[in-house]
Amino acid sequence: MCLTENYGALVELNCETDFVARNEKFIELVSNLASIAHQERCISIDELKNAKYESISTVQEAIMNGTSVLGEKLELSKLCYLETKDGVVAGYVHGDVRGLGKTGALVALQSPGDKAKLQEIGKQIAMHIVAMKPEALSIDDLDQMKLKNERSIIEEQVRSLNKPEEVAKKIVDGRMAKYYEEVVLLEQKFIKDDKMKVSDFIKSSEVSAIKLSDYKLLVLGSAN
């Protein structure tokens, strides 16, 4: 991960063993790739691969050289980034070794408030994201086909209970609310205080008028 006040980048570089993952040369290479992705504002893997590496080669050539030196195939597999103009980008990497780990998250907060306080709030939300792995920022951001299928499954389950229509509808709505709590970031119970949702945590902060505008989650080895 490479992070400044209003821009953050996360990259995933795969190797074959934990032994290489702990190697100083591998750690340095990953750190450099994150810095280049950040500095060049790369928006795709191909763009990052073709970016200059230490002014004498490309990132792709540096990865190939790393494969030769470390004796394992290295593969640049993921890149994600966030930017905001009216606030901060915060982040967190779990198992952090100089910004390296197996799971990382970026959070964009829009607010005219104190930047240092926003960074701390954003980091806490990023930690929550790494732990809870939400699928969407808000209910409106959920995949509508998946949402429709989920509701159909719940309705079928409730139908088998043979409840009156109004009672059945309340049960369906309750189970859908529970589903939202599981997969929607703003609806999830905040990991540091399960008496409030993430949205409540944001509202309760000392900094006013905060909007959580976007987030990115990168999980080592995942399909997304």
In short:
Residues 8-216 form the Translation elongation factor EFTs/EF1B dimerisation domain. Keywords: Elongation factor, Mitochondrion, Protein biosynthesis. By secondary structure, the protein is of the alpha+beta class.
Task: Using brief descriptors, characterize the structure shown.
224 residues; alpha+beta; three-stranded antiparallel β-sheet; elongation factor; EF-Ts_dimer_sf; translation elongation factor activity; mitochondrion
Characterization of the model:
Associates with the EF-Tu.GDP complex and induces the exchange of GDP to GTP. It remains bound to the aminoacyl-tRNA.EF-Tu.GTP complex up to the GTP hydrolysis stage on the ribosome. One of its GO terms (cellular component) is mitochondrion. GO terms for molecular function: translation elongation factor activity. It is found in: Mitochondrion. Residues 8-216 form the Translation elongation factor EFTs/EF1B dimerisation domain. With 224 residues, this protein is an alpha+beta fold. It is 43% helix and 25% strand. It is built from eight helices and ten strands. It has helices spanning 18-21, 24-39, 45-49, 59-70, 115-132, 144-159, 165-183, 198-204; strands spanning 2-4, 7-14, 52-53, 57-58, 75-83, 87-94, 103-110, 189-190, 193-197, 211-219. The strands form four sheets. Strands 1-2-5 form a three-stranded antiparallel β-sheet. It is globular and about 70 Å long. The two termini are 17 Å apart.
